[in-house]
Structures
1.
Amino acid sequence: MKRYIELFGIPNVWTLLIACFPARVAYGMVGLSIFFKAEQSTGSVAFAGIAIGLNAAAGSFTAGIRGSIMDKYGQTWPLRVMVPTYAGLAFALNAVESKPWMLILAFVMGLSAPPINLSVRPLWKIVVPEDFLRTAYAMDTAIMSAAGVVGPVVATSLALSSNPSLPLNIVGGLMLLGGGALALTKVSRSWVPEKKAADYQPLWRHKPLQLLMIEGCFLGFGWGVFDVAVPAFTTIEKVPHLTAWIFTSMGIANILGGLLAGLVSKRTSSLRAMRRTYGIWFFASIPMALSYPGWSMIIAAALLGLLGGAIMVFYWEVMEAIRPKGSPTAMMGWLWTVEGTLMSIGSAAGGVISEHLSPTIALCITTACIGIGYIILAIGKSRLVAADRIPSDEEDLEAMKDNSPTTS
C-alpha cells in the first residue's frame, strides 16, 4: 500500500488516470453496446457477433498505422481528429436500423477508434521514475480494468432498460469527454516521440515482436470468441442480465490481480513473472469453459480475471523491454493489429459457434487458445531474453536522470 501512496504523490499521476478514464469506460461499453443494438434490432446473435467482429477488425487494421503516426507526430492532433469522429459515428450507428448500415458504421467506427490506451502507456515513462514503472503499469491496468467493470454493467443495464437506445449515445459522450481531456493534458501535449536508433529496422522484422504476434494470433482469437460467447450464452439461456454480473466479477478480480502484480518484487524479471502467471492462467480458464450462466460462471470469471490482470502488467513490461528504440506506440499498435484482427475473427466465429453449436464449445476454444499461447512463449523464450534481466541500480539512476527534464 505504501508503494501506491508514494506513486500518487508523484505529479501528474492523478491527472493522467482521471483524464483517460471516461474514454476507457466508453471502450468497456462499446462491444456490448454494439452487440445489444444489433441483437435487439435483428433478433440474431450471430449477426450481433459479426457486427462486433467488424468493429474490432477495423480497429485492429489501423492500430499499427495510428501508433506509427503518434510516434512520428506526437499525440495532440491525432487525438483531436479521431475522438470527435469516433463519437459522431457512435451516435450515427445508434440511429440506424438497416442491417447493412449497422455493419458499415460499426466497421468505420472501428477505423477511427482513438488509441487511448496506446497513448497513455508511453506517458508513464515521463511521469514516473524507472523504479516506479511496474507500480504505475499496475495502477494503469487496474484503472483500465475498472473501466472494463463499469462499461459492461452500464451497457447491459441501459440496453435492458426502458430506453435501450442509450448505450451507444453514452459511448460517444464519454469518448468526447475522456479523449478530449487526454488530448488537452500537459503530459500528452508535451510528449516528444523518441528518436529511432541508427540500426532501426522495420518492426515486422523484429524477432521478439514476431513471437508476440504469433502468440497474439491465438490469444486474440480465443478472447474474441470469449467476448461473444458469454453474452450469447446468457441470452440463449434467457438470463441476459447475468452478462453484467459475469463481466463485473471478472473486471473486479482483474483490478485486484493487476494491483497485486504491482507489488511483486522488482528482483523478479518481467519475463519470468509473465511465464509463471501465464501457465497458472491456463488452468484457471478451465472452470470457465465448464461453467453455466449463474454463480459458477461468475466465480470462474473472477478467477480468470485475477490471473489476467497480473499477466497484463508483466506483458507491458516485457514489451517495453524488447521494443526497438523509437517505437513506444507503434510497437503496441502493430501487435494489436495482429491480435485485434484475430480477435475480430474470433468474435464473428463466437457468435456463429454459440448459436449453431454451443456456447460451451466456444468457451473451450478460449481455454485451448490460452494453452497454445503459453506453449509458444515457452518455445520462443530465447527471443524475449531482453526482458529476463534485472536492471542495476546504476541503470535505474540513469533512467531517472533521463526522465527528469521532461517531468519538470
Note: Residues 2-399 form a domain with the Growth Hormone; Chain: A; fold (CATH 1.20.1250.20).
2.
Amino acid sequence: MNLKRVVGFALFWVAVGIILALFLPNTFVEVLCVLLCILAGYNLFFC
C-alpha cells in the first residue's frame, strides 16, 4: 500500500466521521468517538 492510498483512506474515514458527528446528540459522545478512533488507529498503525 503506498502513501497516497493510505492518505486517501484516512481522509475518506475522516469525512465519514464528520458526517456521523452531525447526527450525534452531544459533544461528549463526539469526543468519546474521536478518542476511541485515535486509540484504535494508533494500535493498528504502530502495533
Note: The chain has a mean pLDDT of 77.
